Amino acid sequence: GVAGAAEAAEDVSPFSPCFRGLAAPKRVAASRHLDLSREVEPVVITGLVDGSWRVPEDLLQGEGGVRVDVWPLDGGPCPRKLDNGTMVSPALVPVAADRVLPLLRRDPRARGYHAYVRHLDLARRPALRAALPLSRLLAVAGARVRSANLWLGDGAVRSATHWDAHDNLLLQLAGRKTFLLLPPEAADRLGLRAFRYDSYVLGDAAKAAVGRGDDAANIFDRHARTGSAVENHGTFDAFDASSRGAPPAAFARARLATVGPGEALFVPALWSHAVASEPETGGGAAGLNLAVNLWFVQACASHEAAVALRPGWAAAHYSHAADLRAAGRPADAVAAYRRALDVAPAMFDAAHNLASALLEAGDDEGAAAQYERAHALRPRPEETRCLVNLGVLRKRQGRLDDAAAAARAALDLDDGDAKAWSLLGNVRALQDRAADADGCLARATALAASPRERANAANSHGVVLELLGRRRGRGEPRDAAKRG
């Protein structure tokens, strides 16, 4: 287990004065016996990196284009939260890999904007992952790592207060990060709400300047809708210097943690946090801030502690259920999703995922009924997944007419739904209606949004075309192609 006394945090802090004097998290040295599985408070871990490791100058070489987040100097915490419920995220600009480090090392004030490589998925970049000293970090996280991500910036961006659904282990490799860590019982003080998700939009000239690593002042003149609602943020601004006085009782377990190179911070799921970065001041990494984080599932201890403290927090029950599913405990996930829906009966994602958990737990008819209930919460063209999943279940049960009816209902809402066309095509093939299947699967292949979906639809289509070819070779008539 984790042991060690909490230490006092430095009095100098980028956060509101009301948080000065907070204790730092416990500190513990890394070892092969270190176990975070029952830990429910933040922990700083030392000794995870060999002291001889240095940031290589060719860190990103061979990685092709790298997405760089671009953010205004006066933008405040990132993302920016507006009073009208809009959250504005950085503009995304592709930059050649060999230009990223020089770009980040330039003084942001001279450059005219902040720059940040955020959430770079290391699973898709094996050479970059191999160049980083992650073996001890991965050993501490254990077998249930959900993702590993690189965070590389100019050391000047401040991350706005938010919470994450998974346990988080962040390893600092260059520069420093200071975290304000707020426990689940403080959530009511944070103004948690859904935000409309916008992003800054850059003109072609500004994009080209950033791509070259050039200066580009006054380039953030507008933002536009880029995604669905974001629900893990609140209106609370941890950096607001006007907020003074002793922390309220809900912040009693709040912590301030600063981690430098070779140190890691464990942030339990559902602990809200804001982050301020500082660049490295010397050596080969001067001007940079580099970290790697792992989102992972330990033993759901952090979720259990959070829902015990705040049983009326629907998102906490929902996150707990998701990690129970990931841990192979579908029956427990069913109970957690039901608790989320008890608090928030209209929570569509909980209703949909409850059906999937019921399916994993072996309750086919309960899952089918739940897919129908979930669909009734959001019967809109952008949400056909309940109907498609119901159709997949009925196809697996051999109830082909019911499967086809579910697929047709999805297509009545959205005629461009590739998954619904693929489902209907496969059902028609099983019903020995090969020509109908041909037409449906051709539509699915053309509409598929991802390479995997396209490959699956094309594979099914190939089987059907082969069947049709054999029939024509035997002189059998083709059935008339029709949607229904």
Features:
single chain, 484 residues, alpha+beta, 10-stranded mixed β-sheet, 15 helices, 18 strands, globular, disordered C terminus
Helix and strand topology:
Elements: E1 6-8, E2 23-29, E3 43-46, E4 65-71, E5 80-81, E6 86-89, E7 91-96, H1 97-105, H2 108-111, E8 114-121, H3 126-130, H4 135-141, E9 145-153, E10 158-162, E11 167-174, E12 176-182, E13 192-200, H5 204-212, E14 223-234, E15 255-259, E16 264-267, E17 272-278, E18 289-296, H6 301-309, H7 314-326, H8 330-343, H9 348-360, H10 364-377, H11 385-396, H12 400-413, H13 418-430, H14 434-447, H15 451-473
Parallel strand pairs: 2-3, 6-13
Antiparallel strand pairs: 1-2, 3-16, 4-7, 4-8, 5-6, 8-9, 9-18, 10-17, 11-16, 11-18, 12-15, 12-17, 13-14
Helix pairs in contact: 6-7, 7-8, 8-9, 9-10, 10-11, 11-12, 11-13, 12-13, 13-14, 13-15, 14-15
Report helical residue fraction: 25-40%
Note the main sheet.
Answer: 10 strands, mixed
Q: How many distinct beta strands?
A: 18
The quaternary structure here is: single chain
In brief:
The chain has 484 residues and is an alpha+beta fold. 36% of the residues lie in helices and 24% in strands.
